[in-house]
Model the fold of this input.
Amino acid sequence: MEEDDTISPQGGGVPEKTTGADVEARDWSEMTAVCLVNVFRRLTLEDRWRGAMLSCRSWLDAACDPSLFSAFDLEPAFDAAGVGRPDAAAWWTPAFQSRVDGMLQLAAERSSGGLREVRIRHCSDDALCFAAERSPDLRTISVRSSQSISDISIFKIAICCPMLMELDISNCYEVSYKSLELIGQNCPNLTILRRNLLNWLDPSQHAGIVPDDYLRACPQDGDREASTIAKFMPKLKHLELRFSKLSINGLLLISEGCQDLELLDLFGCANLTSRGIEQASANLKKLQTLVRPNFYIPRSVFHTERYGHWRLYDERFQTNVFQI
Done:
């Protein structure tokens, strides 16, 4: 995220075709604020923040219009910077977190209460609480892979943002079932929940990127979370629980309590059996998409005496790609 060339107020970045004389004669900084805001609304977040905002005072003023801050989405920037990888080691540092925090706080402040969508990673409780307190109309919050997010900020969201419809707390290991309970009680419109975990079955893919102590802190209370989801989030339509440690008991509770589910993602849930999944999915009459645990697990990961004959692996993980 290095600084790059900015858009020149003397014609740089102007979409219409003009002659050299026309460009020299026009002062694009004198466009009305309404026109500038209308133009900036068509730019990407990165172009506004690293281009338009740095050009001149009138462009800066227009780029700070609250209507341009209804959504703060850094996911495209993360995807581009990651070059196909879901994470980078530098993103797990305090310095990077501080930069993300600063941007989120600035967006929340400039939105003047109009912020409705936040999609970021690697932020902290302080920044998320700041945004929640100033954004009562927040409908979407995605803070996945934020190691400093805990129950503190999720409690704040539950109290301050009752209109919440979508929540992604994937890979946020300091968030407990207590947060899910409070969100369910205070945000009745929640229909999308993503509570995915890092791949604890094969942590080597995160080695050198995610801190080792964080990988070892993988939440163990999968059934407790499943029970909370089933009890307090009955309107869910989209639920992702990748690599959750829930058992068939937890899954059955979800199938009984969340009967509006249309998508259920259980990829990597190693404690589930195909028979149990079939039993649970039979309760979900509206289910359209079911992602099964299909995941190869080396024999060395488990004790042979616990799982017995190799055929049990085939029943548990139902994969056609890898045969153990």
